[in-house]
Amino acid sequence: MSEETIxxxxxxxxxxxxxxxxxxxxxxxxxxxxxxxxxRTGQYIKSTILLLKGQLKIYREGEDGEEFLMYYLQPGQxxxxxxxCSTKNQTSQITAKVVEDVEAVxxxxxxxxxxxxxxxxWYEFVIYTYRTRFEEVLEVxxxxxxxxxxxxxxxxxxxxxxxxxxKEINLSHQEIALELNTSREVxxxxxxxxxxxxLVNLHRNQIELLx
Amino acid sequence: MSEETIxxxxxxxxxxxxxxxxxxxxxxxxxxxxxxxxxRTGQYIKSTILLLKGQLKIYREGEDGEEFLMYYLQPGQxxxxxxxCSTKNQTSQITAKVVEDVEAVxxxxxxxxxxxxxxxxWYEFVIYTYRTRFEEVLEVxxxxxxxxxxxxxxxxxxxxxxxxxxKEINLSHQEIALELNTSREVxxxxxxxxxxxxLVNLHRNQIELLx
DNA sequence: CAGCCACAGTAACATTTGTCACACGGGCAA
DNA sequence: TTGCCCGTGTGACAAATGTTACTGTGGCTG
Lengths: 211, 211
Prior knowledge:
Chains A, B: Pfam families: cNMP_binding, HTH_Crp_2. Chain A is of the alpha+beta class. Chain A contains eight helices and eight strands.
């Protein structure tokens, strides 16, 4: 069994052996460097990507280049949107940027439709992905619709801490502002207030969560 | 062929004959009156609903009972979320309220999983539904993330006009405010400005679109 | 070391949105 | 007719957020 097969099996433990074989036979391994944009709004989707390693950021782009974070993709996950574009030429509604260097498997769209019918484990993976992403997006809507910026910031920090499984968040205020679609000054202001409330300690390029 | 079969065939023209037969054999026709809430956040989903007639409003509920409109369901459509809950006991993340008296077919969840495998036309319907709803929700995010209330109001009015295919919108400012999660006064203010710009004519309980 | 740059803090102000208070008028019911 | 309720219009103010401008500080580099 090849190195890559092992990684694939470990990262997607629910895939059947036959499915793994099909993937190996029909798809290509790819890697991307941090900062690369691997899918952009308006582009045609021609393949879907299974993440083996690294981290992707999926966000919505505003007309003036604003970003709005939707969610992060971790190893063992795939982009929900690219899973469901059927055979028609569908353009992407989102942008995907590499946060940490990525290794991934790229699968041609044409195959996916077939696999849905022939591979139960693929079908379940797609359904599961779609459902969880939909829920995540609903939560995003809740946040921007019902919550003020201070709560959203708290939520954002907690989510981040959970994702990297540590209490230190290495981001500048500017980067956070971009993802919440606000301005650096607002983030600074709110973080300072959180520090006064004893929720965080602030350092240069680092926020230490105390909650 | 029964009356109901005909309605079903007309409303879902892409369903195969075998699928229609299965639906008839395994599901129940139901009707709901305007104002009824037929699915509520936190409830277990035990069936999905195919809309034959009337209109449903799908929205997200805030903690204090605020509403936030996601989209409307028209005849020929189904709630995306209820389509993908697999067999597990999944609770609803949204609330569905009847806008116009509804006639619908209720399908037990257990069957849907089987149909996905056995009925190509059902599979395509589910995928299509999921994709279009996801896109719609992305558009909602765009609106609240990137646009101010005046633009959101314009967008809302246009969408409404398109849905009922006429230029007169019979809603009070209060109702609109609820769906955009703002206050009546704000809606009044913005509508007045739109009137001054020549975009609408305002009447009691009616907004006439001029764009 | 000097200069530069990215990051952070903050004051002052503008704008948008939410809230409160109240007035007006149409239509319906007693 | 009278009174009342609902929908609407509007002014005044409060609060949140966005914007501008300026300061300080640490670290890197020439």
